[in-house]
Amino acid sequence: MKRALVLLMLLVSARAWAHKPSDAHLRLAVDGALVSGRLDVAIRDLDGALGLDADGNGQITWGEAQAATPQISAYLMNRLAIETERGQACPILLGTAALADLSDGAYWAVPVHASCPSAPHELSVTYRLLFDVDSLHRGLLHVEGQTAIARDATPQRFALGEHGSVLAMFVREGVWHIWLGIDHILFLLCLILPAVFPRKGGRWQPAESLRGVSREVLAIVTAFTLAHSITLVISAVGLIRLPSRYVETAIALSVVAAAVNNLLRAIDARWAVAFALGLLHGFGFSSGLIDLGLPSGELVGPLLGFNVGVELGQGLIVVALLPLLYAIRRTLAYQALLWAGSGAVAVIATLWSYQRWMA
Q1: Do 221 and 273 lie in a common domain?
Q2: Of 36, 41, 96, 260, whose CB neighbour count within 10 A is largest?
């Protein structure tokens, strides 16, 4: 019971914005030996690293950020490096910063200039910002039409004039997105939980075969996949864009609906629930891709890879959970998981809904 309470507290205290990890954008263009671009870092992240909130009121003004310009510049310069393929350093200079208002808040936007000893054929970018503050932070590096995602201080190499495949990288990013999206995982869990304890002859009883359970879960997952793939595509290509506040709140409410349905057993056709509410989750998935800041000409490969990664991520979750649920379906532990677990998820997701709407 104590462990369950600890888990509940961790879930409640999780970030309300489950689809927006801490990130920063570095965009660079190369002209001969000159490298120029812009670095965007969230003000809230810089505050976490440097303590910008001078008066301690919980709000960071532009004046407070400007007053900390020397500290911010030193922090960025010490954690960013550019080299040529020969290991020659390209000294970096930072310009005058401005405030950029992006989808998830205010960013410190600073011009970046570097001068290499000679025109490079390959650039190596070492990005070391904020990993010591947030282990889930990522650096989104865009260099001459290529994109890389830095999750640690490993140098990222860009062959200039080449446009390699980004499919594998975005497959990994899609897997990470679903695994870090606790609301997606809870929604999927609420949908598959009752599959091992169906209603037959007006009574709820343990499923008789894993094969039958697997068929039902396959229908649920397929419906969810089809639905979120539709809205992921139309949102990512710009046909329909919804405000993040509405999307994230609606996703949290969809988790509430799935959990409450487990308690009331009002709708047995959970594949229909998965499809209807999965449309909302597709808009949430698209935010993870759009936040990468990709130009429209690069969207096809990342979109395909990201969606494949999401499917792989959720498939692995189902494969891991379904045999376990089937094995315990006749036990008190399963009943507690179904009823108490669904009730806890409903409460947590309701709190998320409030947090996201009020944010």
Answers
A1: yes
A2: 41
